[in-house]
Protein backbone atom coordinates (compact mmCIF):
# COMPACT_ATOMS: atom_id res chain seq x y z
CA UNK A 1 0.00 0.00 0.00
CA UNK A 2 2.85 2.35 0.80
CA UNK A 3 4.37 1.68 -2.60
CA UNK A 4 1.00 2.32 -4.26
CA UNK A 5 0.68 5.64 -2.44
CA UNK A 6 4.20 6.64 -3.48
CA UNK A 7 3.51 5.81 -7.10
CA UNK A 8 0.27 7.81 -7.06
CA UNK A 9 2.07 10.82 -5.58
CA UNK A 10 4.78 10.59 -8.24
CA UNK A 11 2.12 10.53 -10.97
CA UNK A 12 0.44 13.60 -9.50
CA UNK A 13 3.74 15.49 -9.37
CA UNK A 14 4.42 14.64 -13.04
CA UNK A 15 0.96 15.84 -14.08
CA UNK A 16 1.45 19.12 -12.20
CA UNK A 17 4.83 19.64 -13.92
CA UNK A 18 3.37 19.00 -17.35
CA UNK A 19 0.45 21.36 -16.68
CA UNK A 20 2.83 24.07 -15.56
CA UNK A 21 4.97 23.56 -18.63
CA UNK A 22 1.95 23.87 -20.90
CA UNK A 23 0.83 27.03 -19.16
CA UNK A 24 4.28 28.60 -19.55
CA UNK A 25 4.41 27.79 -23.27
CA UNK A 26 0.87 29.08 -23.79
CA UNK A 27 1.65 32.36 -22.04
CA UNK A 28 4.82 32.76 -24.11
CA UNK A 29 2.98 32.24 -27.38
CA UNK A 30 0.27 34.70 -26.34
CA UNK A 31 2.94 37.32 -25.54
CA UNK A 32 4.34 36.84 -29.03
CA UNK A 33 0.89 37.39 -30.48
CA UNK A 34 0.89 33.96 -32.16
CA UNK A 35 -1.26 31.37 -30.32
CA UNK A 36 -0.18 27.80 -30.93
CA UNK A 37 -2.42 24.98 -31.98
CA UNK A 38 -0.08 22.29 -30.71
CA UNK A 39 2.75 22.20 -28.15
CA UNK A 40 6.34 21.35 -28.77
CA UNK A 41 6.17 18.55 -26.26
CA UNK A 42 3.02 17.11 -27.74
CA UNK A 43 4.44 17.29 -31.23
CA UNK A 44 7.68 15.67 -30.23
CA UNK A 45 6.13 13.03 -28.01
CA UNK A 46 3.31 12.11 -30.38
CA UNK A 47 3.83 8.97 -32.44
CA UNK A 48 4.08 9.01 -36.20
CA UNK A 49 0.44 8.26 -36.64
CA UNK A 50 -0.55 11.21 -34.45
CA UNK A 51 1.71 13.51 -36.43
CA UNK A 52 0.05 12.44 -39.64
CA UNK A 53 -3.46 12.93 -38.31
CA UNK A 54 -2.63 16.29 -36.74
CA UNK A 55 -0.27 17.46 -39.45
CA UNK A 56 -2.14 20.71 -40.01
CA UNK A 57 -1.73 21.75 -36.39
CA UNK A 58 1.98 20.93 -36.39
CA UNK A 59 2.55 22.87 -39.61
CA UNK A 60 0.80 25.92 -38.20
CA UNK A 61 2.95 25.76 -35.10
CA UNK A 62 6.14 25.49 -37.19
CA UNK A 63 5.13 28.36 -39.44
CA UNK A 64 4.19 30.49 -36.44
CA UNK A 65 7.33 29.94 -34.40
CA UNK A 66 9.92 29.81 -37.18
CA UNK A 67 9.98 33.61 -37.48
CA UNK A 68 9.28 34.40 -33.83
CA UNK A 69 11.84 36.71 -32.16
CA UNK A 70 14.54 34.75 -30.43
CA UNK A 71 13.40 31.42 -31.83
CA UNK A 72 15.89 28.99 -33.37
CA UNK A 73 15.39 27.94 -36.98
CA UNK A 74 15.12 24.23 -37.37
CA UNK A 75 15.93 24.49 -41.09
CA UNK A 76 17.17 27.36 -43.22
CA UNK A 77 14.90 26.15 -46.02
CA UNK A 78 11.85 27.18 -43.95
CA UNK A 79 13.23 30.51 -42.80
CA UNK A 80 11.49 33.59 -44.17
CA UNK A 81 12.61 37.17 -44.16
CA UNK A 82 10.50 40.25 -43.50
CA UNK A 83 8.97 40.08 -46.98
CA UNK A 84 7.86 36.46 -46.55
CA UNK A 85 10.41 34.95 -48.94
CA UNK A 86 12.43 31.85 -48.15
CA UNK A 87 16.17 31.44 -48.54
CA UNK A 88 15.78 29.63 -51.87
CA UNK A 89 13.58 32.40 -53.29
CA UNK A 90 16.11 35.05 -52.32
CA UNK A 91 18.95 32.99 -53.71
CA UNK A 92 17.23 32.68 -57.07
CA UNK A 93 16.45 36.38 -57.31
CA UNK A 94 19.99 37.38 -56.32
CA UNK A 95 21.61 35.19 -58.98
CA UNK A 96 23.44 37.18 -61.66
CA UNK A 97 23.35 34.34 -64.18
CA UNK A 98 20.05 33.37 -65.78
CA UNK A 99 21.59 30.51 -67.75
CA UNK A 100 21.78 26.87 -66.66
CA UNK A 101 25.50 26.15 -66.61
CA UNK A 102 25.61 22.96 -64.55
CA UNK A 103 23.61 19.84 -65.30
CA UNK A 104 21.76 17.74 -62.76
CA UNK A 105 24.21 14.86 -62.61
CA UNK A 106 25.37 12.52 -59.87
CA UNK A 107 28.10 14.06 -57.76
CA UNK A 108 26.99 17.58 -58.66
CA UNK A 109 23.80 17.90 -56.57
CA UNK A 110 22.18 16.29 -53.53
CA UNK A 111 21.29 12.65 -54.01
CA UNK A 112 17.66 13.39 -53.14
CA UNK A 113 17.27 15.02 -56.56
CA UNK A 114 18.74 12.09 -58.49
CA UNK A 115 16.05 9.81 -59.86
CA UNK A 116 16.46 6.30 -61.16
CA UNK A 117 13.70 6.60 -63.73
CA UNK A 118 15.86 8.69 -66.10
CA UNK A 119 19.20 7.29 -65.10
CA UNK A 120 21.62 8.88 -62.68
CA UNK A 121 23.69 10.36 -65.46
CA UNK A 122 20.76 12.09 -67.19
CA UNK A 123 21.13 15.80 -67.79
CA UNK A 124 17.71 17.34 -67.17
CA UNK A 125 18.73 20.87 -68.24
CA UNK A 126 20.32 19.91 -71.54
CA UNK A 127 17.83 21.94 -73.60
CA UNK A 128 18.79 25.09 -71.70
CA UNK A 129 22.48 24.64 -72.41
CA UNK A 130 22.41 23.84 -76.10
CA UNK A 131 24.82 26.05 -77.97
CA UNK A 132 22.92 28.70 -79.90
CA UNK A 133 25.95 30.71 -81.00
CA UNK A 134 27.39 30.17 -84.45
CA UNK A 135 30.97 29.44 -85.42
CA UNK A 136 32.20 29.24 -88.97
CA UNK A 137 34.61 26.33 -89.05
CA UNK A 138 32.53 24.80 -91.87
CA UNK A 139 33.49 27.62 -94.23
CA UNK A 140 36.71 26.50 -95.91
CA UNK A 141 38.82 28.37 -98.40
CA UNK A 142 39.22 32.01 -99.33
CA UNK A 143 36.18 34.02 -100.30
CA UNK A 144 35.82 37.54 -101.54
CA UNK A 145 34.33 40.13 -99.19
CA UNK A 146 33.07 43.28 -100.89
CA UNK A 147 34.91 46.32 -99.47
CA UNK A 148 31.72 48.40 -99.18
CA UNK A 149 29.96 45.59 -97.32
CA UNK A 150 32.95 45.05 -95.03
CA UNK A 151 33.23 48.74 -94.28
CA UNK A 152 29.57 49.14 -93.32
CA UNK A 153 29.27 46.06 -91.11
CA UNK A 154 32.60 46.53 -89.31
CA UNK A 155 31.87 50.21 -88.67
CA UNK A 156 28.47 49.35 -87.21
CA UNK A 157 29.96 46.70 -84.90
CA UNK A 158 32.78 48.96 -83.72
CA UNK A 159 30.43 51.90 -83.12
CA UNK A 160 28.21 49.82 -80.86
CA UNK A 161 31.09 48.53 -78.77
CA UNK A 162 32.33 52.15 -78.46
CA UNK A 163 28.86 53.61 -77.92
CA UNK A 164 29.62 54.79 -74.37
CA UNK A 165 32.43 56.98 -75.73
CA UNK A 166 30.46 58.45 -78.64
CA UNK A 167 28.63 61.63 -77.69
CA UNK A 168 25.73 60.89 -80.01
CA UNK A 169 22.92 58.36 -80.38
CA UNK A 170 24.28 55.18 -81.93
CA UNK A 171 21.80 52.98 -83.83
CA UNK A 172 21.77 49.49 -82.39
CA UNK A 173 20.32 47.85 -85.53
CA UNK A 174 21.83 47.63 -89.00
CA UNK A 175 19.37 46.70 -91.74
CA UNK A 176 21.09 45.11 -94.76
CA UNK A 177 18.66 44.89 -97.65
CA UNK A 178 18.71 44.36 -101.39
CA UNK A 179 17.71 42.00 -104.16
CA UNK A 180 17.16 38.28 -103.68
CA UNK A 181 20.15 35.97 -103.87
CA UNK A 182 22.80 38.70 -103.63
CA UNK A 183 24.73 36.94 -100.86
CA UNK A 184 23.82 39.29 -97.99
CA UNK A 185 23.75 36.64 -95.26
CA UNK A 186 26.89 34.91 -96.56
CA UNK A 187 28.83 38.18 -96.72
CA UNK A 188 27.86 38.87 -93.11
CA UNK A 189 29.09 35.41 -92.06
CA UNK A 190 32.38 35.90 -93.91
CA UNK A 191 32.93 39.18 -92.07
CA UNK A 192 32.18 37.51 -88.73
CA UNK A 193 34.69 34.76 -89.52
CA UNK A 194 37.34 37.36 -90.38
CA UNK A 195 36.67 39.25 -87.12
CA UNK A 196 36.54 36.15 -84.92
CA UNK A 197 33.03 37.17 -83.88
CA UNK A 198 30.68 34.52 -82.44
CA UNK A 199 27.11 35.60 -83.26
CA UNK A 200 23.66 34.33 -82.40
CA UNK A 201 21.73 33.83 -85.65
CA UNK A 202 17.95 33.59 -85.97
CA UNK A 203 15.77 32.97 -89.02
CA UNK A 204 12.42 34.36 -90.08
CA UNK A 205 10.79 31.01 -89.25
CA UNK A 206 11.33 31.68 -85.53
CA UNK A 207 9.29 34.90 -85.57
CA UNK A 208 5.90 33.20 -85.36
CA UNK A 209 4.43 30.76 -82.87
CA UNK A 210 1.08 29.37 -81.76
CA UNK A 211 1.76 30.97 -78.36
CA UNK A 212 1.49 34.75 -78.25
CA UNK A 213 4.68 36.40 -77.05
CA UNK A 214 7.00 33.45 -77.63
CA UNK A 215 8.98 34.95 -80.59
CA UNK A 216 9.45 38.26 -78.77
CA UNK A 217 10.74 36.49 -75.67
CA UNK A 218 13.01 34.36 -77.87
CA UNK A 219 14.56 37.51 -79.36
CA UNK A 220 15.24 38.91 -75.88
CA UNK A 221 16.64 35.57 -74.74
CA UNK A 222 18.95 35.33 -77.77
CA UNK A 223 20.07 38.91 -77.24
CA UNK A 224 20.98 38.12 -73.62
CA UNK A 225 22.83 35.01 -74.83
CA UNK A 226 24.93 37.17 -77.16
CA UNK A 227 25.57 39.46 -74.21
CA UNK A 228 26.77 36.49 -72.15
CA UNK A 229 29.29 35.68 -74.89
CA UNK A 230 30.71 39.19 -74.52
CA UNK A 231 30.58 39.21 -70.72
CA UNK A 232 31.69 35.68 -69.88
CA UNK A 233 33.83 34.54 -72.83
CA UNK A 234 35.33 37.92 -73.69
CA UNK A 235 34.46 37.56 -77.39
CA UNK A 236 32.66 39.90 -79.74
CA UNK A 237 29.13 38.84 -80.53
CA UNK A 238 26.06 40.05 -82.39
CA UNK A 239 22.43 39.09 -82.90
CA UNK A 240 21.51 38.39 -86.53
CA UNK A 241 17.96 37.88 -87.84
CA UNK A 242 17.93 36.74 -91.46
CA UNK A 243 15.03 37.50 -93.84
CA UNK A 244 13.31 39.73 -91.31
CA UNK A 245 10.74 40.93 -93.86
CA UNK A 246 9.63 37.35 -94.59
CA UNK A 247 8.84 36.73 -90.92
CA UNK A 248 7.66 40.13 -89.69
CA UNK A 249 6.95 42.18 -92.82
CA UNK A 250 3.51 43.36 -93.87
CA UNK A 251 2.39 42.55 -97.40
CA UNK A 252 -0.85 43.22 -99.23
CA UNK A 253 -2.59 39.95 -98.47
CA UNK A 254 -0.88 38.86 -95.24
CA UNK A 255 -2.30 39.07 -91.76
CA UNK A 256 -0.50 40.89 -89.00
CA UNK A 257 -0.61 38.80 -85.82
CA UNK A 258 0.01 39.64 -82.18
CA UNK A 259 3.45 38.06 -82.48
CA UNK A 260 4.31 40.36 -85.40
CA UNK A 261 3.42 43.39 -83.30
CA UNK A 262 5.38 42.13 -80.30
CA UNK A 263 8.45 41.35 -82.44
CA UNK A 264 8.42 44.92 -83.75
CA UNK A 265 7.92 46.29 -80.23
CA UNK A 266 10.72 44.13 -78.82
CA UNK A 267 13.21 45.27 -81.46
CA UNK A 268 12.27 48.91 -80.84
CA UNK A 269 12.68 48.41 -77.09
CA UNK A 270 16.10 46.83 -77.58
CA UNK A 271 17.15 49.76 -79.77
CA UNK A 272 16.08 52.21 -77.06
CA UNK A 273 17.32 50.22 -74.02
CA UNK A 274 20.06 47.85 -75.17
CA UNK A 275 21.46 47.17 -71.69
CA UNK A 276 18.20 46.52 -69.79
CA UNK A 277 16.63 43.36 -71.20
CA UNK A 278 14.14 41.26 -69.28
CA UNK A 279 13.08 37.71 -70.04
CA UNK A 280 10.39 37.63 -67.37
CA UNK A 281 12.31 38.15 -64.15
CA UNK A 282 12.20 41.29 -62.05
CA UNK A 283 14.65 44.03 -62.96
CA UNK A 284 17.72 44.30 -60.76
CA UNK A 285 20.20 47.13 -60.67
CA UNK A 286 23.10 44.72 -61.15
CA UNK A 287 21.43 43.01 -64.13
CA UNK A 288 23.09 45.02 -66.91
CA UNK A 289 23.43 43.30 -70.28
CA UNK A 290 26.40 44.27 -72.47
CA UNK A 291 25.39 46.21 -75.56
CA UNK A 292 25.33 43.86 -78.55
CA UNK A 293 24.85 45.04 -82.16
CA UNK A 294 21.88 43.67 -84.10
CA UNK A 295 22.02 43.00 -87.85
CA UNK A 296 18.86 42.35 -89.88
CA UNK A 297 18.90 41.07 -93.45
CA UNK A 298 15.98 41.26 -95.85
CA UNK A 299 14.80 42.12 -99.33
CA UNK A 300 12.45 45.03 -98.58
CA UNK A 301 12.68 46.95 -95.31
CA UNK A 302 9.66 49.08 -96.26
CA UNK A 303 7.44 46.17 -95.20
CA UNK A 304 8.57 46.59 -91.58
CA UNK A 305 6.95 48.87 -88.98
CA UNK A 306 7.98 52.42 -89.84
CA UNK A 307 8.99 53.49 -86.28
CA UNK A 308 11.44 50.57 -86.17
CA UNK A 309 13.39 51.58 -89.28
CA UNK A 310 13.55 55.28 -88.44
CA UNK A 311 16.91 56.99 -88.10
CA UNK A 312 18.38 56.62 -84.65
CA UNK A 313 17.13 53.07 -84.19
CA UNK A 314 18.21 51.44 -87.43
CA UNK A 315 21.03 52.22 -89.83
CA UNK A 316 20.21 51.07 -93.38
CA UNK A 317 22.55 49.65 -96.01
CA UNK A 318 21.37 48.80 -99.52
CA UNK A 319 23.55 46.09 -101.03
CA UNK A 320 23.86 45.55 -104.75
CA UNK A 321 27.17 44.13 -106.01
CA UNK A 322 29.06 46.05 -108.67
CA UNK A 323 30.55 44.41 -111.76
CA UNK A 324 33.93 44.11 -110.02
CA UNK A 325 32.25 42.53 -106.99
CA UNK A 326 30.48 40.01 -109.22
CA UNK A 327 33.67 39.08 -111.06
CA UNK A 328 35.64 38.61 -107.83
CA UNK A 329 32.91 36.59 -106.12
CA UNK A 330 32.28 34.35 -109.16
CA UNK A 331 36.04 33.84 -109.54
CA UNK A 332 36.19 32.43 -106.01
CA UNK A 333 33.12 30.32 -106.78
CA UNK A 334 34.70 28.76 -109.89
CA UNK A 335 38.28 28.56 -108.61
CA UNK A 336 38.41 24.73 -108.63
CA UNK A 337 37.18 24.57 -112.23
CA UNK A 338 40.30 26.19 -113.67
CA UNK A 339 38.52 28.93 -115.65
CA UNK A 340 40.56 31.91 -116.74
CA UNK A 341 39.74 35.40 -115.50
CA UNK A 342 38.70 36.38 -119.04
CA UNK A 343 36.16 33.54 -119.04
CA UNK A 344 34.66 34.79 -115.77
CA UNK A 345 34.38 38.33 -117.14
CA UNK A 346 32.70 37.03 -120.30
CA UNK A 347 30.28 34.97 -118.22
CA UNK A 348 29.28 37.97 -116.10
CA UNK A 349 28.82 40.11 -119.21
CA UNK A 350 26.52 37.54 -120.83
CA UNK A 351 24.23 37.54 -117.75
CA UNK A 352 24.71 41.04 -116.29
CA UNK A 353 21.36 41.35 -114.46
CA UNK A 354 21.46 38.04 -112.61
CA UNK A 355 21.96 37.65 -108.88
CA UNK A 356 24.86 35.80 -107.33
CA UNK A 357 22.84 32.68 -106.66
CA UNK A 358 22.27 32.39 -110.44
CA UNK A 359 25.96 31.68 -111.02
CA UNK A 360 25.96 28.97 -108.38
CA UNK A 361 22.86 27.36 -109.90
CA UNK A 362 24.44 27.59 -113.35
CA UNK A 363 27.52 25.71 -112.15
CA UNK A 364 25.34 23.05 -110.56
CA UNK A 365 23.28 22.66 -113.78
CA UNK A 366 26.39 21.75 -115.76
CA UNK A 367 26.77 18.58 -113.67
CA UNK A 368 23.38 17.21 -114.78
CA UNK A 369 24.79 15.43 -117.84
CA UNK A 370 27.60 14.02 -115.71
CA UNK A 371 25.08 12.56 -113.24
CA UNK A 372 23.01 11.07 -116.11
CA UNK A 373 26.09 9.30 -117.46
CA UNK A 374 26.80 7.92 -114.00
CA UNK A 375 23.23 6.60 -113.73
CA UNK A 376 23.64 4.75 -117.01
CA UNK A 377 26.93 3.26 -115.82
CA UNK A 378 25.41 1.78 -112.64
CA UNK A 379 22.48 0.20 -114.45
CA UNK A 380 19.81 2.88 -114.56
CA UNK A 381 17.53 4.58 -112.00
CA UNK A 382 16.12 1.24 -110.78
CA UNK A 383 19.54 0.43 -109.28
CA UNK A 384 19.51 3.43 -106.96
CA UNK A 385 17.77 1.50 -104.21
CA UNK A 386 20.84 -0.75 -103.98
CA UNK A 387 23.24 2.19 -103.81
CA UNK A 388 21.59 4.78 -101.58
CA UNK A 389 21.74 5.39 -98.74
CA UNK A 390 25.41 4.57 -98.46
CA UNK A 391 25.90 2.50 -95.31
CA UNK A 392 29.08 2.44 -93.20
CA UNK A 393 31.73 0.20 -94.64
CA UNK A 394 30.29 0.40 -98.13
CA UNK A 395 32.16 2.10 -100.93
CA UNK A 396 30.77 5.50 -101.82
CA UNK A 397 30.00 6.02 -105.52
CA UNK A 398 32.43 8.29 -107.35
CA UNK A 399 31.79 10.67 -110.24
CA UNK A 400 34.35 11.13 -112.96
CA UNK A 401 36.15 14.45 -113.03
CA UNK A 402 34.23 17.03 -115.02
CA UNK A 403 36.07 19.60 -117.07
CA UNK A 404 34.18 22.88 -116.89
CA UNK A 405 34.02 25.01 -120.03
CA UNK A 406 32.66 28.47 -120.78
CA UNK A 407 30.37 27.09 -123.50
CA UNK A 408 28.70 24.61 -121.15
CA UNK A 409 28.21 27.30 -118.53
CA UNK A 410 26.59 29.70 -120.97
CA UNK A 411 24.30 26.93 -122.24
CA UNK A 412 23.23 26.08 -118.68
CA UNK A 413 22.72 29.77 -117.90
CA UNK A 414 20.39 30.25 -120.84
CA UNK A 415 18.32 27.28 -119.74
CA UNK A 416 17.93 28.85 -116.31
CA UNK A 417 16.95 32.21 -117.82
CA UNK A 418 14.32 30.49 -119.96
CA UNK A 419 12.84 28.81 -116.88
CA UNK A 420 12.75 32.16 -115.04
CA UNK A 421 10.87 33.81 -117.90
CA UNK A 422 8.36 30.96 -118.07
CA UNK A 423 7.56 31.30 -114.37
CA UNK A 424 7.01 35.05 -114.61
CA UNK A 425 5.15 35.06 -117.94
CA UNK A 426 2.87 32.03 -117.80
CA UNK A 427 1.61 32.47 -114.22
CA UNK A 428 -0.26 29.20 -114.25
CA UNK A 429 -1.80 29.94 -110.88
CA UNK A 430 -3.91 32.65 -112.52
CA UNK A 431 -4.97 30.19 -115.18
CA UNK A 432 -6.02 27.65 -112.57
CA UNK A 433 -8.13 30.22 -110.75
CA UNK A 434 -9.79 31.78 -113.81
CA UNK A 435 -10.38 28.95 -116.29
CA UNK A 436 -11.51 25.46 -115.22
CA UNK A 437 -10.21 22.59 -117.36
CA UNK A 438 -12.45 21.42 -120.19
CA UNK A 439 -14.95 18.81 -119.06
CA UNK A 440 -14.37 19.47 -115.37
CA UNK A 441 -16.87 22.13 -114.27
CA UNK A 442 -16.53 23.50 -110.78
CA UNK A 443 -12.81 22.88 -110.35
CA UNK A 444 -11.72 26.37 -111.34
CA UNK A 445 -12.97 29.64 -109.86
CA UNK A 446 -14.05 32.63 -111.91
CA UNK A 447 -12.92 35.89 -110.36
CA UNK A 448 -14.80 39.04 -111.27
TrEMBL record:
Sequence similarity: Belongs to the RuBisCO activase family.
Compartments in which it is found: Plastid, Chloroplast stroma
GO MF annotation list: ATP binding; ATP hydrolysis activity; ribulose-1,5-bisphosphate carboxylase/oxygenase activator activity
All copies of domain Ribulose bisphosphate carboxylase/oxygenase activase AAA helical, residue ranges: 323-420
Region (Disordered): 1-79
Main localization (coarse): plastid
Pfam families the record matches: AAA, RuBisCO_activase_AAA_helical
The UniProt record lists the keyword Nucleotide-binding: yes
UniProt name for this protein: Ribulose bisphosphate carboxylase/oxygenase activase, chloroplastic
Positions of the ATPase AAA-type core domain: 176-320
A GO CC term assigned to this protein in UniProt: chloroplast stroma
Cross-referenced Gene3D superfamilies: 1.10.8.1070, P-loop containing nucleotide triphosphate hydrolases
The protein's role, per its UniProt record: Activation of RuBisCO (ribulose-1,5-bisphosphate carboxylase/oxygenase; EC 4.1.1.39) involves the ATP-dependent carboxylation of the epsilon-amino group of lysine leading to a carbamate structure.
Keyword ATP-binding: yes
Composition skew (Basic residues), residue ranges: 10-19
Keywords on record: ATP-binding, Chloroplast, Nucleotide-binding, Plastid
